[in-house]
Predict the 3D structure of the following.
Amino acid sequence: MKTVNIHEAKTNLSKLVEGALHGEPFVIARAGKPLVKVTMLEQEPPRRLGFLEGQFTVPEDFDTMFADEIRELFEGREDDRIEPRK
């Protein structure tokens, strides 16, 4: 197993981590004394995509839902508008 000092690990961290991901763990040492072992995690990260699949439905008019109400909030109702002076 490869042993590197802290300075070398800081300088080459990306390469060392890439190696660990390909099954080449390494040890980081200070003054020749091993401190930590870096190795690939055996677990895959949890998959979040699709975790609520089938739990709800999206209405067909989702993009236009409440459009009239939202327009009223910004512009006011037709009968509430004040006509500009002429």
